[in-house]
Write a structure and sequence with these properties.
The protein has helices at 2-7, 54-71, 119-130, 147-150, 186-190, 216-227, 249-252, 265-277, 282-297, 341-356, 368-375, 398-405, 409-418, 429-442, 445-452, 487-577, 613-622, and strands spanning 18-20, 81-85, 97-104, 107-114, 137-140, 165-172, 193-200, 204-211, 234-237, 257-264, 385-391, 419-425, 461-467, 475-482, 590-596, 602-608, 630-634, 639-640, 658-665. The chain has 666 residues and is of the alpha/beta class. Among the domains are: 97-172, Phosphatidylinositol 3-kinase Catalytic Subunit, Chain A, domain 1 (Ubiquitin-like (UB roll)); 185-268, Ubiquitin-like (UB roll), CATH 3.10.20; 341-509, Glutaredoxin; 590-665, Roll (Ubiquitin-like (UB roll)). A 6-stranded mixed β-sheet has the order 1-2-4-3-6-5, with helices on both faces. α14 runs antiparallel to α15 (445-452). It is elongated, with a radius of gyration of 49 Å. Residues 586-663 form the UBX domain. Residues 1-58, 544-563 are annotated as: Disordered.
Length: 666
């Protein structure tokens, strides 16, 4: 340890892109910030060391430290950490440096960056210390309001409203099963069709054509419809690790043409039971049954301890004896190395109900963030406390707490009405570390520290988390109820904390009511204004509509008048063109016709006596008096000339040498 400390860079040395190897949490002979030795020795930075590159040196020292810790674990109970110091100027200007605690793979990596650094630069430094490629990094724990900005590589971290100390969670997308699916590819794969080829042992192969939006649970349900295999009896081989029932085909990362192997666990159990009835060796049957259980509960990454967590296997399927076999007691409620909080929550609730039976409190199933949204991130009137139940299978208080206190009707009703109850099992260290990281990212580092400091002999415990303005508008732990408590005291603590929390919310409720009243008045004013505006607009529209109708009517009348005038003019021109030439005054066989108009004026023209009556009518029409509107009356004998045969000559009608006729409107 002394030798390593002498060659490791110190915080007081001018560093540039220097990676500190993991160091134990206990005091170190060379403390950070310590002065250089009296001989003026300065530990060289990695770029000054001969031989391997910086990254190789980092790996070498990290490996050396890891081996040392393995050999000296009883002397140094440490938690491995790694930190990185990027900006030389940060040594003298701490207010421009931001610290990031990266939780990954049960290890805390500390990274220091200048506030002007970008998300891409942060991810590259994360790659330097974790070897997780940038394309596979998914970082959780950003402020909700800036989560979208944090996904953009060019965003500067100073624009994300971060504190000087920040807790983040790193997820390796490969380990979560999304081998071939980058986040920006998932939307493109959602609308594609997947050809799922399923080898159903030992019955043959069948194919399903499904959309990329289909979830794994829907695939299993479709198999149930096709082959009548209940979902709980389906054993699948071929899904990428990290997938759960809510994962879509697009998110799972499988190819568009993918093959799975399917087995029916009920058939296997039935075959074992038939072998027992046929008199097989009991030891062989026992081994077969054990193998059957192994198929249900163990996969390539599971440990034998997870045997206890076998679910969805009906004891009614076993007919070895007249009574169901005795199942081993599950000390844990969540399998080891669970990497998905939603899956872990679902398994917790299912195993809790199976182990402790009814009645049981109503646990929330889903992620911790969803539980926080349901409990704390609502209007003050609807807000509840989040009760986080921390379970531990090795605690001597577990059975008493769960079988007696958590089954009391008063406790169940109080938790249902006043709280959102979220449960987690901390029996395995892997699940405990994951949940502590979630508490840091979702609530606060104080909440994580509080949960970490609860001793085993105080578990199970209930952490009560709330949000109010008096708490700085952040979620904080209000109270912790340990498992070594009686029923009356537990109920009293729950009620007292609820009463205190509701009292804190009164100011916020009153402010919300005042805001709602102002909004109501404003809404009513806006509604009245809108109604008045609509009425004015309706009047204006009616007025405009009436004016438009009048204009259209005028246009129609003018159009009809123009058409009528054109028709009259056409008739007049035809009549004018058909008139014979007017004879001279000295010519023989002529007659003079005078036409008295309705106004009293006269029209006068000479005609040959051989001209017919139609020529006279054309003359009248040519002067604008259409025969369809006027009639031509002779003076003696009085007769309507427009009503007789127009082909008769004027001589036949005795209108020579002169005649006066009268125009009358019809």
């Amino acid at each position: 340890m002394d030798a390593l400390s002498r060659v490791m860079p110190h915080d007081d040395a001018p560093l540039s892109n220097t990676v500190l190897a993991p160091q134990p949490a206990l005091p170190n002979p060379v403390q950070p910030g310590a002065q250089s030795n009296t001989n003026g020795f300065r530990p060289p930075s990695y770029d000054e060391l001969p031989g391997p590159s910086n990254a190789s040196a980092s790996s070498f020292f990290a490996s050396a430290m890891h081996n040392h810790n393995q050999n000296q674990r009883h002397r140094y109970p440490t938690q491995l950490t790694s930190s990185i110091n990027l900006d030389p100027s940060s040594q003298n200007n701490n207010q421009n440096v931001m610290n990031f605690n990266i939780n990954f793979n049960q290890t805390l990596f500390q990274i220091r960056l200048p506030s002007t650094a970008t998300i891409d630069q942060l991810k590259r430094k994360i790659f330097d210390v974790t070897n997780v490629p940038v394309c596979r990094q998914s970082i959780c724990g950003w402020p909700p309001a800036k989560a979208s900005d944090a996904q953009k590589g060019g965003t500067q971290i100073c624009n994300l409203d971060l504190s000087p100390e920040n807790e983040l969670i790193l997820i390796d997308l490969t380990e979560d099963g999304f081998m071939d699916t980058e986040p920006d590819e998932v939307p493109q794969r959602l609308d594609k069709d997947y050809n799922i080829k399923i080898l159903y042992e030992p019955h043959g192969t069948f194919t399903l054509n499904l959309s990329g939006r289909t979830t794994i649970l829907e695939v299993k349900t479709n198999v149930y419809y096709v082959k009548e295999i209940p979902v709980r009896h389906q054993e699948w081989t071929g899904w990428p690790s990290g997938c759960n029932n809510d994962t879509t085909l697009a998110e799972s990362g499988i190819e568009l043409n993918h093959q799975f192997v399917l087995r029916n666990l009920a058939e296997r159990a039935q075959s074992n039971s038939n072998a027992a009835l046929d008199g097989e060796n009991p030891q062989t049957i026992s081994n077969s049954a054990s193998n059957t259980f192994d198929v249900v509960t163990l996969d390539s990454e599971s440990s034998a301890d997870e045997f206890e967590d076998a679910t969805d296997f009906n004891t009614a399927e076993y007919i070895f004896t007249d009574s169901p076999p005795v199942q081993p007691l599950n000390r844990h409620l969540i399998p080891n190395n669970t990497d998905d909080e939603t899956t872990g929550s679902s398994q917790f609730v299912e195993n809790y109900q199976s182990r402790f039976g009814e009645p049981y409190p109503e646990f929330f199933v889903g992620s911790l963030e969803s539980a926080l949204q349901l409990a704390c991130h609502k209007p003050a009137k609807e807000r509840k406390l989040l009760a986080i139940y921390l379970h531990h299978g090795e605690s001597i208080l577990t059975n008493v707490f769960c079988d007696h206190l958590m089954k009391a009707e008063s406790i169940i009703q109080t938790l249902k009405e006043k709280f959102v109850l979220f449960g987690w099992d901390m029996t395995y260290d892997s699940n405990k570390d994951m949940f502590l990281s979630l508490l840091t990212a979702r609530i606060s580092s104080n909440a994580s520290l509080t949960a970490r400091n609860i001793k085993l002999d105080k578990l199970p415990a209930i952490m009560l988390v709330g949000k109010s303005r008096q708490l700085g508008s952040n979620c904080e732990v209000l109270s912790v109820i340990h498992g070594n408590i009686g029923l009356d005291d537990l109920l009293s603590r729950l009620i007292e904390t609820t009463a205190m929390y509701e009292e804190q919310l009164q100011v916020e409720i009153r402010q919300e009511d005042e805001r709602a009243a102002r909004d109501q008045v404003k809404a009513e004013q806006d509604m009245a204004y809108e109604e008045t505006l609509q009425a004015d607009m309706a009047k204006e529209a009616a007025k405009s509509q009436k004016a438009a109708a009048q204009a259209a009517e005028r246009k129609r009348i003018e159009s009809e008048r123009a058409e009528e005038n054109a028709r009259r003019e056409s008739i007049r021109l035809v009549a004018e063109q058909s008139l014979p030439l007017e004879p001279g005054e000295q010519e023989a066989s002529i007659c003079k016709i005078r036409v008295r108009k309705p106004t009293g004026d006269f029209l006068e023209r000479r005609f040959y006596t051989q001209n017919n009556l139609q020529d006279l009518l054309n003359y009248v029409t040519a002067n604008g008096f259409l025969i369809e509107e006027y009639k031509l009356i002779s003076s003696w004998p009085r007769r309507d000339l427009t009503a007789i045969e127009s082909s008769q000559t004027l001589a036949t009608l005795k209108m020579s040498p002169q005649e006066t006729v009268i125009l009358e409107e019809r």
